[in-house]
């Protein structure tokens, strides 16, 4: 084989190797997206049974600066692990679920209440995940994703156990840590919580509302909101919120959910 032929063959091999490396990187990002879907699905499973402390330990980016959680109905944001735990772990279990535990014991005094932690008997908080848009950064260190979340709730309200339709929207930033993908910034906006026997249009005019700040011990957010969301109204157009992610190279070149 002549030197020219050898050089041409080596050039072909180099090009093929570069192509394979690119394909491999693309396949790794597909694998990342599947892992991210699993991580956020685990959020829903943990949340459904009130295992928020286990959830934070297992799938939140506790080793990455800037950890944050935001519920649009609160018009504020919890930034830092301590603030997230104060709201999502401590207050939720002691006060939010505590109010429900006391209400259910009062309504059904003959039923064994079980342990004094988590959602009580009869209470269900089930969120599903649909229509995902997941975008992994080119550098594979962060990712962004949105979901729409139809669900249902059963909770004590007005002296009875009430069933509700409940729809949310999620926007999440994920960070890669040593043991995998983790929730870094979590934003959730509520479309509606409607009693089972009403439509969301009726509920807008006459449905019950829950002011979380009226529950004892509520920890106020420690940072401003990054994105407002008003939910369903018969007098507004459908919002393009949260905005689905688009391809990006690294997190410094995009925005934060």
Task: Describe the protein's architecture and organization.
- This protein is an alpha+beta fold and 257 residues long.
- It has a single domain (3-253), classed as Nuclear Transport Factor 2, Chain: A, CATH 3.10.450.50.
- The protein has 4 helices and 7 strands; from the N terminus they run ααββαβββββα.
- Strands 1, 2, 3, 4, 5, 6 and 7 form a 7-stranded mixed beta sheet that branches.
- A hairpin with a 5-residue loop joins strand 4 and strand 5 (142-157).
- Helix 1 (3-48) runs antiparallel to helix 2.
- The longest helix is centred in the first third of the chain and has 46 residues, at 3-48.
- It is elongated, with a radius of gyration of 23 Å.
How would you describe this structure in keywords?
alpha+beta, 257 residues, 7 strands, 27% strand, Nuclear Transport Factor 2, Chain: A, 4 helices, seven-stranded mixed β-sheet
């Amino acid at each position: 084989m002549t030197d020219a032929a050898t050089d041409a063959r080596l050039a072909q091999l180099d090009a093929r190797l570069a192509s394979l490396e690119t394909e491999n990187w693309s396949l790794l990002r597909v694998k990342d997206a599947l892992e991210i879907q699993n991580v956020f699905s685990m959020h829903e499973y943990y949340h459904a049974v009130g295992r928020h402390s286990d959830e934070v330990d297992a799938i939140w980016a506790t080793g990455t600066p800037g950890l944050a959680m935001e519920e649009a109905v609160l018009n504020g944001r919890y930034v830092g692990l301590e603030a997230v735990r104060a709201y999502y772990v401590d207050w939720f279990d002691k006060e939010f679920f505590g109010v429900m535990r006391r209400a259910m014991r009062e309504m059904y005094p003959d039923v064994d209440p079980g342990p004094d932690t988590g959602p009580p008997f009869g209470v269900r908080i089930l969120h599903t995940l649909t229509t995902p848009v997941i975008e992994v950064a080119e550098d594979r260190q962060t990712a962004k994703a949105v979901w729409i979340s139809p669900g249902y709730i059963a909770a004590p309200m007005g002296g009875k156990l009430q069933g509700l339709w409940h729809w949310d929207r999620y926007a999440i930033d994920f960070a890669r840590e040593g043991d995998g993908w983790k929730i870094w910034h979590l934003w959730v906006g509520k479309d509606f919580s409607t009693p089972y026997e009403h439509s969301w249009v009726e509920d807008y005019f006459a449905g019950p509302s829950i002011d979380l700040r009226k529950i004892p011990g509520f920890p106020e957010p420690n940072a401003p909101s990054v994105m407002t969301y008003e939910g369903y109204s018969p007098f507004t157009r459908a919002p393009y919120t949260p905005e689905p992610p688009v391809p990006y190279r690294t997190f410094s070149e995009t925005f934060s959910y």
